Amino acid sequence: HLLEIWNGEVYQELRRNMAEGNLEAAGCSKCFALQQGIPMGMMYDPDADLESPPQSAYAKHLQFLRNEIADGKAALESNPTVISLTSSHQCNLRCIHCYQTITRDRTLVREDCIDEIFGLLPTLVRITAGGGEPFLLPLWKHFLRDVDLSVNPYLEFAVSTNATVVTEKLI
Hints:
By secondary structure, the protein is mostly helical.
């Protein structure tokens, strides 16, 4: 399950190395962004900091996560705040440069993870629809139709689309 991965040994080791400033061991020493001096911090919506004291589930979770990071915890009780979900590489185009051509027919093996991910919506800052053409999938059309932003007004939806199936209704 997703949260078992989030707190699995690989991620715990990554967090320990990052907390110690050991970017080589964390696998971050050759990060292009870091080499270019681009500041890398936790992605969050700064408007949540205006809640004093925190009221929304997102702002409360953000405060809790920051405390866990400041304490150098490797195993976290807090949840991820950014999720990218690619449930399929299905696409309506066949671009010759596309690296996903060989995986075009694959679909998500464990569909119950979608419920796990959507259960995190109150504390996410971003959910990214990945894939070939995400808007070919009913999942993302239903998500956009049904998402309740009153549960988390800080939630961003990100998508990379070829825009060939984007309609006025979808927008």
